[in-house]
Amino acid sequence: MKSKEVLSRDYLHVHLTQSYLPGGGGLEQSISNIITALSEPNSIVVCISSGDKEKDGEYDRKSNIKIVRSNSHLFQYAKILNHNFNSIVSGNTKLSAKGKLSMLVLSALSTALLLGSARRVVKRSTSKSVIITAYSMNALLVAIILRTIMQKNIKIIFSNHFAYTKSGFKPVDLILRIALKEADYTISVSNYSKAELIRNFGVNEIQSHVCYNWIDLKVLPYRQDYPKNNPKRLLFVGRIVPEKGIRVAIEFAKYIKINNIPYEITVIGDSNHPIKNELINLAETNNRIRYLGRVDKPEIWKHYMQSDYFFMPVQWEEGFGNVILEAYAFGLPVIGTARGAIPEIVGHFAEGKIIHSSDPREIIQALSDLGKSQLLSNRVEVIKLNRLVINKYFSSSNRNVHESINIALTQEKI
Predict the structure, then answer these.
(1) Dist CA 291 CA 282 (whole Å)
(2) How confident is the model at residue 231 (pLDDT cuts 50, 70, 90)?
(3) Higher pLDDT, 329 or 114
(4) pLDDT value at position 374?
């Protein structure tokens, strides 16, 4: 039964996500931003946890958000599943028949785990109306099951943070199409992500909305000075996996070393992917690339302030890319690949370069063009302009998130 009536004010808002951990990535930061912006006292985050009760419990006690965790050793598998699933539906990963079967089994297990926790939360609530915002496809499936089995008025919002494309794996594509049609409303983090849902899975455009991710400029230090680096520094911040473009960064570092071109790369991020070992080994022998691993935010801010350019050579269809906003807030022009929403986000700012290949010569040309920019010769003015753009389109003062939720709650499903 699909929900068609407007929810009463006495409602429970369940934010259903695969994981929600301290120091999480862009998705977890976005979820936190959305919940904080809505300022709902009746919001609950239901998630799968790592099982580290001491670490998670300390984080949860400090949070102003009620967090319900389903502690399980399956969490690590769920994270791998979520990563693989998003890679597959973004057209970046091809699995063998055995790999596909394993993915489906893990998907069923993690979905069941999430369903158990969510069902208990909804069942115990005295609210007759429930909003479920699902932040992954597994979470969306759980929301649909809950609406089917629970005697509650449930509205389902799918919060789309990726660029879902047809995977070529027919069972997955069919599940996606059916699940997305069951959602009452979808909120995507970019026009690109929204368009992909409509084009590939028949999502109704009228019941889709775009709400850009945002950053809080108040927590970012204001850059005052610009060291005259020689060689010029590129900064890479992200997971150390091929789809985030680390292979491109590695090959670029080799190229500039061999050809004695005056650039160097600082890499910040972590993963369990084998390519991390290759990066570590290269950094020990090639002085044009530094690998710092995972560092805290204040330390990352220092590296933004010590760099000249931000390098984002992703090799998959990026749904948004929060680090783009951070880079521009510190006055760094972005060099990014023409994948997913990167051109859309970079296009809001005065300076930036979109590259169309992984060829080091194209990257060098993009850097050379930026180096000749008259605007970039006055970085203080650039920061002012960039922060004006962020305040207009990518900050919590943009009430897009409130509009999106309100539309989702009041619009009847077609």
Answers:
(1) 9
(2) very high
(3) 329
(4) 81
Per-residue pLDDT, 175: 84
What is the C-alpha separation between 199 and 203, in angstroms, rounded? 8
Determine the Cα–Cα distance for residues 143 and 134; give it in Å rounded to an integer: 7
Tokens at residue 78, please? 């769920």
Other beta carbons within 10 Å of 357? 12
Conformation bin of residue 17: beta by default, left when phi > 0, alpha when psi is -120 to 50: beta
Find the helix or strand (DSSP H, E) in which 292 lies.
strand 289-293
Judge whether 251 and 386 are in contact, CB under 8 Å: no
13 forms beta bridges with 43, 131
Give the SS3 label for residue 70.
strand
> Which residues lie across from 14 on neighbouring strands?
44, 132
Please, which pLDDT band fits residue 363 given cuts at 50, 70 and 90?
very high
Q: Decide the pairing of beta strands 334-337 and 43-49.
A: unpaired
Retrieve residue 135's tokens. 């932040």
Q: Which residue, chain included where needed, has tokens 């904080």?
A: 36
Strand order in the sheet with 66-71: 66-71, 43-49, 11-19, 129-134, 153-160, 185-188, 208-210
Which band of pLDDT confidence, cut at 50, 70 and 90, is reported for residue 369?
Answer: very high
- Furthest CA-CA distance within the chain: 68
Residue 42: which of 17, 85, 88, 8 has the closest Cα?
Answer: 8
Please state the pTM of the whole predicted model. 0.86
DSSP 3-state percent helix, strand, coil across the chain (nearest 5): 50, 15, 35
How far from 29 is each of 16, 64, 122, 305, CA to CA, in Å? 14, 14, 24, 22
Dihedral sign, CA of 215, 220, 225, 228? Answer: negative
CA dist., res. 292 & res. 16, Å (int): 33
CB atoms within 10 A of CB 93: 18
Output the pLDDT for position 402: 60
What pLDDT, on the 0 to 100 scale, is given for residue 4?
Answer: 41
Cα separation of 122 and 125, whole Å? Answer: 5
Q: 3-state class of 25 per DSSP? A: coil
Q: In 3D, which of 274, 272, 252 has the Cα closest to residue 264?
A: 252
